[in-house]
Amino acid sequence: MNDHQLPTGADRTGPPWSEAELIRLMDVSPSGDGHYVAPAHGSTIRNVVEAGQLLGAAIVAAAKEAPAHRVVSASMVFSRAAAHDEPLAVDVDVVRAGRTFGTARVQVSQREAQCCTGIVLLDAGAPDLIRSAAPLPDVDPPEALSSLDIPGTEVEGRDMRVVGNAYTPDPDTVGPPELFVWTRFRDAPGAAALQQALLTQSAGHWTVAAALRPHPGFGESMAHSTISTGITMITMTFHDDADVTQWLLYGTRVVYTGRGHAQSEGRIHSADGRLLASYSVHAMVRGFRPGDAAARARTDTVL
């Protein structure tokens, strides 16, 4: 899948994109003490694993390594591209697993080359002492919207609906630097960490598109062809438990673009108004350098 966009769909040898395939890729398997393996998907048109999938796999690995704790927050820097057509090694080092909090370092590599490094905060749990949260944005409900139908965005078993049809390949459609997207999966994955992984997988989809919206002549469809884009860092923080089979609203607002960078803040709400998670995304948005034709087909240094 693309690094910040939705799945391309036009695969060479990989299986069709589906909810089951996303879960399979992020549900890492143990392979020795602190070591896990994420399976390959197969070759795609743009053979680069997206950032949200990598962080999702890291969250599942940390949860399996410290099963008495819940993942509270996970942050990862993406420094090298990973390919869809080979498995990934996910290594977890539990720095501390205390009675209250735990900390784990996670590294994802491929062909013995490090692709990304993250830190995961884990919590043994506690009841509310106080409670307050940011409110649900006042936007159209999913029932009033049409499913996202841009070719190549389909994931079987997942329904996405964009408020105001604001996610568009038209570079001349201008709007504020924000996107609101309702998402719902058909099936519940079971384990809480897999619910978190599915929440994370699409958190990076919207930042680059939102950053380009205020600027005429620039649009998401130009990514990797006429402009160089990629997700360089994601931080996810999980608040309440989520049910991914219910409508969830991703609200992403870009707070800065410039000097080749874009930074967003986001929140995930349930339809009944509960704040389930929040996230921040850092992205690269810049022009290709002269002679960078090869980089338009692949990314060697950052996603």
From TrEMBL:
Example GO molecular function: fatty acyl-CoA hydrolase activity
Domain Acyl-CoA thioesterase-like C-terminal per the UniProt entry, residue ranges: 158-278
SUPFAM superfamilies: Thioesterase/thiol ester dehydrase-isomerase
InterPro entries: ACOT8-like_C, Acyl-CoA_hotdog, Acyl_CoA_thio, HotDog_dom_sf, TesB_ACOT8-like_N
Chain ranges of the Acyl-CoA thioesterase-like N-terminal HotDog domain: 45-120
CDD domains: Thioesterase_II_repeat1 (cd03444)
Single GO BP term: acyl-CoA metabolic process
Keywords: Hydrolase
Pfam families reported for this sequence: 4HBT_3, 4HBT_3C
Similarity remark: Belongs to the C/M/P thioester hydrolase family.
The protein's name: Acyl-CoA thioesterase
Species this chain originates from: Nocardia vermiculata
